[in-house]
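Margin note from the TA: students keep mixing up input and output lines. Inputs are the sequences; the output is the structure of the whole complex. Example:
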Amino acid sequence: MFGIRRTLLTSLVLITCGFLFAGYAQAADQIELKVSVIHASKAKGKADPALKKIESSLRKAFGGFSSFQQVANQADKLRVGKKLDIKLPNGQNAVVEYKGKAKKHHQLRLTIPTSKVAVDLSVPSRKMFYQAGIKHKNGILVLAFYLKD
Amino acid sequence: MISERDEELLNRFIDGELSVDEAAEFEARLSASEDLAAVRDEFVQMGSALREHVATELDEVDFSGFFDGVIARLGPDEAPVIEPAPTAAVVETTEEGVISSMKAWWSNNWTPVLVGAAAAAAIAFWMGQGTSPTPVTTPDVARAPAESTATKSIVASDQPREAQPANVVVDAIRNEGNKAILVSQPVEDDGAMVIWLLDEEEEDEQPVDGEDPI
């Protein structure tokens, strides 16, 4: 009687520890990804006030363009294996899949299905990067990505 | 002769168990009833005589050899060995003692520990599935271009990956469409990497042999 009770109690304690450990591991492998969809064109105009924080970065990276307007933005928390579907104004979409963390870099796969392109990336936390070049309304689409732990 | 109820009250009165009100009421009855008072005196005398008798009997008993007698009856093997209680300063736990204690504990508890550990490992494995990075299986054209999949993909960086740990790094590119991919790394530390997806331009017409291009 006491043996069974002791077995159950020990199992319960260790199972609880297992849940806690697994929960901690899950929480550690989660990122928050922010994406801003921007229309860049050579038309004269100021940058969208919503892009004020990254205006200088945009002008450095895309010197040939003068107008930057945010079309859409979205953010989501991603766990390993989860995908974020980004709707583009031209009807296409881009997909970002979180593949886990290796050392200090997060592994992402950026896919643009219509163009049959997939790029695997190692991205440090709080470092922005862009994808650009898809033509849209006399300009291009710029996807600005930013992730943090 | 008194009733059983009065006898009970009288016993409680002598033993001091009556409440103040009950005792006052019973004393009034004692004053009024000679029979009750006589029984009371009788009980008091009996109690005094009994106490005196027990005291006398106890005085006559010799307890001086009682303990030795008990030890002698138990025999030498069964006699208890009385030792001073150990104190923290003199208690020594040897390594063998610890090991034997652990062995004893393990022999009693190995089943629940193993069952619990197996269950915890199974749960941790189940919940942890997919938390480790999945190896990238696409061809890494940035380091080893793959002929069948990558077309016109250029990584515009001469720096080795290890030299730029704080930047975004392209690990692999898979391109099965008709777009050209250009990756431009920033020159400045605060710059951002851009993955360009460009339409393929029509190839320039090559001049016919012997013809001036312009």
